[in-house]
Amino acid sequence: MLSSKFLIEKTGISRATLNNYIKLGILSKPVVSNPGLASKGPRQLGFFPADTIGRIETIGKLKQEGYSMSEIAAQLLGANEFGATGTNPHATIEPDLSNTSIPPAPAPAAPLRRTDDDGPRVTIDELAHPAYMIDHNFELIWINQEARRQLPGVTDLSAKSDGRSLLRLLPAQRNEWGSLLRFHVALAKGRLTADRFNFACRGLDPMAFAKMQVIYADATAEPAMPMLAAPITLPDETNRQTPHTAYASHFREGMLIVLLPQTNGNDAMLELLSRRDEVIRSLLRRRLPVLTDLAVMVADLQGSVTICSELPPEEYFELINEIWATVTPIYRRYHATCGKHVGDGLVYYFFPQPDSDYLANALACAQETRCAMQRLSKNWQIRKNWLNELYLNTGITEGQEWLGTYHSSTGVEFVVLGDTINQAARVSDVARHGSIWASKSLIGKLSAKERDRVKYGVHRRAPDGRDLFVASSFSFVSSLLEQNGLRLEKLKDISTLAITEIVAIEPLPK
Q: Which CATH number applies to 290-505: 3.90.79.10, 3.30.565.10, 3.30.70.1230, 3.30.460.10?
């Protein structure tokens, strides 16, 4: 047996690389034991079989020849316990953290082939088997023609997002499709609580709903791994059950599902899935337009023209980039999607989530962004010795709009069509000094629990000139303008919109 310390010294690999090889399964897990060293040495060391050095050298040679980690894993995993003579019923695959390729699910070994010898690579459009992408609510956002042809119930999809839920489309089919249904329920159980699962199944008839609850209770939750492979059976043209492998590739935007007959080679498909960035860009370009509930947040940098005139160009761009770097992690935490923006403004969309309230997410995100901007403003005041305050004036509205994508050769941009985004932009024009204003309809749709956490209201001017804050109240935009002696022509289209100022949000109890 060889110690991990000896392996690292002998082969020259780092400990992180050694751990990656173990995670991929191309090296066996070490046997941990006391090395019997002096008290100053490590009390526990990992020990590997004697042939591990040769295996590491083989991996190194293949990497030097230009093979990706997914190709190397495909070759070496063919010799493990799930090789040509066995199957792993629910193989979970962890990523190589030093490479963007996804290691493939354990499968019979196929000869390694160089990418430049393979000819044209398979693309999303060339997948000859059912493939579709679902969001985190298990609603279809992309589907290929093979899936439309072979899967019942998905030929004519509803325009509304909740009408595209696989958790409602699949239960309506015959028992021949039960294997595929159970696979999706197992995925859902790893991601949705029982309440959220039941909510996703709303609209089913009582018998189908009860059946789904039983399947959910009996299912073994599949973990949220970058890629998952599981055996299923699907009916052919004669209703004979045929063995398939369902591959679920997890992205931040959702899950790509590919259903591949087990008689087919999977090397081309796995090579495609290993190109994660390319795959998700392709899928987002093909995303189906959908009518969905959402909240829209627009935030503008107050006095940006003045700030730009006072700073050298390189410092102004540095400031804008620092604002983006500051707020982007916050928006990501609250499941926000970046939208089309102009200049130094920010536009973000918040969509329904399986485990959180998207409306509350929008408000909490705005509140946290305001606090982050206050810290950033102080840093720049110290740096420049100026008195300027950096404010992001924020407007938030909600509605049901069409979501789609605009794309070019260089990128993909989410776009919402309708009045909601225009209203949010106009409301942000009402906000001053970093304030957050939201529509009455958004506050009204919050749950009672979430609404109790929000301190909101409108400042009113008393007859004696005093400023009074009236809590839990709203005002027409036109009334606010009259009170402040303002007349903004661009706000005429929202003059009768009722809005309120978000003053604070109490943190969730720990």
A: 3.30.70.1230
